[in-house]
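Run log, item B.
One chain of 148 residues. Sequence copied directly from the ordering sheet:
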Amino acid sequence: MAQSLREALDSGKFVITSEIGPPKGTNIEKMLHHIDLLKDKVDGLNVTDHQSSVMRFPSIGGCLAIKEQGGEPILQMTCRDRMALEAELLFAYSRGIKNVLCLTGDAVPVGDHKQAKGVFDFDSTQPLHTVCLLESGKDLGAMTLTGR
């Protein structure tokens, strides 16, 4: 990838992204293979966040793998069950992940942890507000951060 997703979007050209589905477990060889196949053909790679409401390897881990292989990651963060939304956003940014796709997420009953309860504290637009606050140096409680 010659340019960042931001540069591709700002250029006005038709932007292409692709989706990477992490495994249910720690064997990421197949995911790494898919990253290698796609990274030079698209402007960004979106890593799903517990796709189909099934517990899987985390989106942030997939994003780091994409960065390590020279691709442009897009962190997918669903709002279905995030109490640590801000912490994950800060962690992602600290590791160079600057693209986030905010989604509400699949309903828990369709997944493999049917006993789990969806929290839905946020809908898919509220993380955008959270990102703006974090960029300004404040958290959701209006407390000052040591780094934006």
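Observations after the first pass:
- The chain has a mean pLDDT of 85.
- Helices lie at 5-11, 29-38, 59-68, 85-94, 126-135.
Flagged for discussion on Thursday.
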